[in-house]
Amino acid sequence: QVQLVESGGGLVQAGGSLRLSCAASARTLPPTAMGWFRQAPGKEREIVAGMSGLGGRTYYGDSVKGRFTITRDGAVNTVYLQMNSLNPDDTAVYYCASRPDSSSRVYPTSSDYPYWGQGTQVTVSS
After folding, report:
1. Which of 26, 39, 96, 101: disulfide with 33, CB 3.0–4.6 Å?
2. DSSP summary character for residue 117
3. In contact, 35 and 98? CB cutoff 8 Å
4. Interatomic CA distance for residues 93 and 120, integer angstroms
């Protein structure tokens, strides 16, 4: 069983930055596709960013392109989401997700991921 733990959320002013971390509690069998999703009150969960298991291919939701960056440190089984130029529309609970995968495919749909973290709140004030 894979356990994912997010951290790094908080309150930030518009225009500011945050870096979220997602650490796996057990050694996952590489390669592993990863995803960051978010869900705001009354809205559906949406993809923020994804990374393939092999090749480091990335995918970003349209609303965060050019502002957010997903990276991975395989040595410590941690995936990061660097978020810059935050605005109030970015306010949501952010979740990381993983799936064992040995391809260069990125998975933008939440149903593709069997493992999820508990989420971390990001609030952007205007």
Report:
1. 101
2. B
3. yes
4. 5
- Other CB atoms within a 10 A radius of the CB of residue 115 amount to 17
pLDDT of residue 28: 55
Q: Is 52 exposed, middle or buried (0-12, 13-18, 19+ CB in 10 A)?
A: buried
Which residue, 118, 92, 100, 117, is CA-closest to 10? Answer: 92
DSSP classification of residue 25: S
Query: What is the Cα–Cα distance from 114 to 107, expressed in whole angstroms?
Result: 12
| Count of residues in the chain | 126
How does pLDDT run across 8-45, given as a tens digit for each residue? 999 999 999 999 999 987 655 668 899 999 999 999 99
Which has the closest alpha carbon to 9: 66, 65, 83? 83
Task: Spell 61-83 as b/e; 16+ CB within 10 A means b.
Answer: beebeeebebebeeeebbbbbeb
Instruction: Give per-residue pLDDT as tens, 111-120.
Output: 999 999 999 9
CA distances to 11, 31, 87, 94, 107 from 101, in Å: 34, 6, 33, 22, 10
